[in-house]
Every structure is written in structure tokens, then in C-alpha cells.
Amino acid sequence: PDALLAIARADRDGSRVFLVEYDRTTRVDKNYEKFRRYDAFLTWWWRHTSFVDRGDPPWVLFVCQDQPHRDKFLAAADRDLTGHRWHPSAGPSERHYVGRRRILFACEADAHSGVLEARRVPGYPPGHPDRRGPLGETRAVRLPGPTRAGHPPTDALPTTQHQRPASSASPQQSFEAA
After folding, report:
1. How far is residue 72's CA from residue 29's CA, in Å, rounded to a whole number?
2. pLDDT for 124-176, tens place per residue?
3. Dist. CA 175–CA 178, nearest whole Å
4. Intra-chain end-to-end CA distance of the chain, in Å
5. Which of 139, 137, 122, 123 is nearest to 173 (CA)?
6. What is the number of domains present in the chain?
7. 147 neighbors 171 (Cβ within 8 angstroms)
């Protein structure tokens, strides 16, 4: 990663770890393998690293230069993030797509203007039988940090709002559980 951030949790002891990837190329094709490697890492391999001592897998945050750049990354990641945890007796609805939940995409311009929001791909990959309705759309995620200048920090990562890639959610909108 380009950076590693540990952000203190507002809800309990410890911190959330973010592996930050800043894309300067705007070439999504340079990141296909990176998407797959992070997907495999978050689905299983993080347990064999020092991150296991923290108890939760890290988050991966791709910082894109603008919304069209981010939307290209989301479309490519939607296709490539297929790693999942499952049991042979479990049906498709019981597969856990960890990378799809923990890999986020943000705009650099938003970060500079104080918008603490990222997007993540739909919960299921294309072609999955449960991918329909809101579960088939890109989801907005609030990043941890101050909600507005002078207000206490928020620890809002576990919540999402279903969005289409080109739209933006206002900070006042309520978020539903992922």
C-alpha cells in the first residue's frame, strides 16, 4: 500500500486499519491484479499476518482522482472481487464476500473538501442469484472521522446506503445496516 492508517475507534478500544492505495495513473488495468490480491488477502490470508492481533481484518481504501475515475475502479472491482468464504453444505446466499465488504473507493477531491465518504461494490458479484434490487447497486459508506467541523468523530464504517455509482449521498441522509 501507499500508506497504512490506524484510526482510533469511537465505539470501543483499538483502531481500524486502512491500507491506502492512491492511484495516480487513472488506468484501471494497472490495478486488476491488485484487486484480486487484496480480495484474497482479506478473504483469508490476513489471518497469517500481524493484523490477526487486532482481531478484525484491515480495510483497503483506493483513493481515485475524481468520480469518473472512481466509477471505473468500482466497475472493474465489481467484476474482479469474487473471493468468498463458504462451506460445501452452504448455498450461494451463505457465502461471505469479505473483499467486497472491506475494499472501499474514495475520491481525492472529496477528501480535500472534508467529505468522509467512500463507495463499495455490491455485496454479491455479477451473476449471483441474490444480486438484485438494492443489493445489486454500489453502496455509499461513511468513513470514520468528524461529521462536521467542531463535532465529535464518528465511527460509521459498518453502515451503508445503496447508491448508483455516479450519484452522491448527502451527509444528512440516514444509513442502513449493511
Report:
1. 10
2. 899 898 888 877 888 999 998 776 554 444 555 544 444 443 434 333 222 22
3. 9
4. 26
5. 139
6. 1
7. yes
